Amino acid sequence: DGDGMIGNIYDMGLALQALEATGEFYAPRVWDCAQAFSVVYSHDYRQPMAIAQVLPALVGRSYLDAAGLDCAASIPPCPSPLPAAPITVHYSIINKLQGRHFSYVTSVQVPGGSTLLKVLQAAEKEKPDIFSFQTEQTSWGPMVVSIHGLAANPEDRTYWQFLSGGDALQEGVGTYKPQDGEHIQAVFSTY
């Protein structure tokens, strides 16, 4: 589209690889390489799968070439991180879809820069009878499959959707970092 995005931010790595490989077949080119790369450069990729897909395009090489790069030689050592000030995150779990309906809300404190997964863990630690949850590990990071004993089910086409300000989160619980005062909702939903 007009801002250089191809699909969503996680599609960009494979899209750039494909366009780079087939670019010679476009005359004139119908895509703006620089604009697409600027989208990738401005995003803070954290998931290993997304990084693996975008890395070859960034270094202008294939997956096999990228595997031989000596990245460690050019990366300075990380400074010791300063302790982050705590933030407060409001967290709700809502089920108005199936079985016994429920709606619970809590506020937890976590260090600034914490992922949403840390928020869920803090809520579970404070009130395990209400905010218990389970995750499954995927190639894109942990995915929440059950909250308060209510499990997502592909046969019912149900899942736990995470929202902030009414908008669905574009990142998973393992990478999304809530801001101080943010209200995160986990809503049992259908697709």
Mind sketching the topology for me?
Elements: H1 12-22, H2 33-42, H3 48-59, H4 63-67, E1 86-95, E2 102-111, H5 116-126, H6 128-131, E3 133-138, E4 141-147, E5 150-151, E6 158-164, E7 167-168, E8 183-190
Parallel strand pairs: 1-8
Antiparallel strand pairs: 1-2, 3-4, 4-5, 6-7, 6-8
Helix pairs in contact: 1-3
Keywords:
191 residues; alpha+beta; Ferric Hydroxamate Uptake Protein, Chain A, domain 1; 2 domains; 3-stranded antiparallel beta sheet; 8 strands; 27% strand
Question: How would you describe this protein?
Answer:
Strands 2-1-8-6-7 form a five-stranded mixed β-sheet, with helices on one face. A three-stranded antiparallel β-sheet has the order 3-4-5, with helices on one face. The protein is α+β, with helices and mostly antiparallel strands. Helices cover 28% and strands 27% of the residues. The longest helix has 12 residues, at 48-59. Strand 6 (158-164) and strand 7 form a beta hairpin. It contains six helices and eight strands. The chain starts with 11 loop residues before the first helix and ends with a strand. It has two domains: 11-65, no CATH class; 85-190, Ferric Hydroxamate Uptake Protein, Chain A, domain 1, CATH 2.170.130.30.
Question: Can you give me a brief rundown of this structure?
Answer:
The chain has 191 residues and is α+β, with helices and mostly antiparallel strands. It has helices spanning 12-22, 33-42, 48-59, 63-67, 116-126, 128-131, and strands at 86-95, 102-111, 133-138, 141-147, 150-151, 158-164, 167-168, 183-190.
